[in-house]
Predict the 3D structure of the following.
Amino acid sequence: MEDAADLIVTGAVIRTVDRSQPLVEAFAVRDGRIVAVGSSSAVSAHRGPDTRMLDVGDAAVYPGFVDVHNHHALAGRTELFELSLAPSLTLDEILDRVREHAATLPEDAWIIGGVVATTLLPTLANTGTRLRLDEAAGGRPVVIVEDSRHNRWASTRALELAGISASSIPAAGVTVLDPDDGTPTGVLLEAAGIPVQEAYDRSGGLTAEQHIAASRHGIRILNSFGITTFQDAGVSTDILAALATLDEAGELNAWVVSSLLINDEIFGFDPIGSPLIERGAAYRTAHHRPDFVKIFLDGVPPARTASFLEPYVADAVHGAHFHGETTMTFDELYGWLRSVAERGLGAKVHCTGDGSARLVLDVAERLRAEGVSTPIQIAHGQFLAEADIPRLAELGVSADISPFIWFPGVIPQALAEVLGERAEHSQPNRALLDAGAMVAGGSDWPVSESPNTLEGLQGLVTRADPLGRAPGELWPEQAITAEEALEVFTINAAKAMGLGGETGSLEVGKSADFVVLDRDAIGGPADQIIDARVVSTWFAGREVFSR
């Protein structure tokens, strides 16, 4: 039988996320692609003598999960080569971990790690605490990122190597000074931390082999959570090379869309902007698509670097009328988006305030009027003016949302401190879907502690912390259904990153990317979605993870 399937999957619950036939009994796979979907009897016509039969019984099969926003290589690097810190650690616990790690290192070795909680930054912002870090590290250079990955805490030696002092303050970002002695505390907000990252890179940084290992490890973790497609939200040439190398060796077990940095407010990558865009295509392979750019249009609300239409809660430093700022003007953003569109690239634009989101939509309105149809994502988009919600659908702008970091917990607490009651009205997902917007799910891992899609699904449906760490619900009127949530983390996310024709649903012609769960996660109580477990993950018809 020449057209026999390599694999036929059968089971009691197979969710295709194809609205024309959402539930089927079986599907067949040949050469990594789906060739038949439907009833067991119809699909069995593709069975040959060498066809592998996979009957999952009472387990459930979903399309492979799609994560529209993560930083897989940074997560892999942290786990393999850096000091990993849980955001729940206290200052004393962090210092103990630094002290233990330092004892294993040469005297001049860098200590790179994270994370510290955003809410801990005020405690760190003084000379005395920096000196405690120096003592714990034995005088070594230390850089620890906080949980948004936008800000850093550095030791005295790290500041020295970066050339940061009271008389030499980075021009970009915010270097927090001690109010008593005027010296840098080591707390560096946004781009102020880049000189420290550059100093570490000058010391040697990671090798090409280590970058490959970091990407491989990050993808292995994603596969373990059923994820077979993702968009990395900000890459370097090292990460691009690692992904291309893995794919050329047949080891890239996911579809990957990379976002080429236009501006860099946090990473310290080089090159960025036009030089990086010009090199991006060289790293394109069968499963790696460097098809987007990434623009940081603002920062993060807890550091008051996000741009809002209404002012922040008043404080002594910023006063009562501070709105934050965008990194680009209308003309600058328009120029970049027009330029990348001409190259056939999409754009992921980081907007954590409703002011920056408004600017993206205003620019998109002009571009659409000129006939420019390039994909645009508003990344995070947790705060949107009510009048702007229908504009996303009207202008074909996708909402890249990260439910992992907005249900009740540390980050919403930090938001409330600077935004007041506005913090209770974030992620208007029900309103976006009702207005016809494309809502795509992402984890923002490792900003979130885990890329577990099931956490995101449950958070979207319950508006509560799936792990039970914090009480309450966040704007419960904006809950969506479980079926809608599954679309958000499969076909919607795939479409938003330009891969809707390749993956995101179980349909004939698409890549055979699917996850087997031990139960139908969205078919039961909403507060038990996270209790499901991944049994196996399959990419292009190959099993890439099994428990």
